[in-house]
Amino acid sequence: MSNRPLNYRALAESDHAAEAAPFVTFMLQALLTAMREAARTDQVSDQVRRLLSAFQGSEMLNAAELMRRLDLQHRPTFRKNYLQPALAEGLIEMTAPDTPQSPAQKYRLTGKGKRITKALSLRG
Question: What's the pLDDT tens digit per position in 59-82?
Fold first, then answer.
């Protein structure tokens, strides 16, 4: 999510008040938010990081395709170590949450998952 409109509003408030305090306050809050998000990426397990990296953009993938991309064979291990933790953290979501066992079930990154994926990719 872009902070551009908030950034412009903070600049306008600073300009109107003829002081930098509103803009500085906004920037410090934005930095704190970014630092907290970066700290959360450190708490993502290696398995969940691998799962997130299997997604390309906004695509929706079923479990079999995710397992194929991760080169995994054992479905129970995939569910326990990859899928369930990512769902619990809100990093991925089901496309049909009302029917979790549906053969047509697919998964996609959430906004949070996309932010974490981006932060992880920036780290190299």
Answer: 999 999 999 999 999 999 999 999
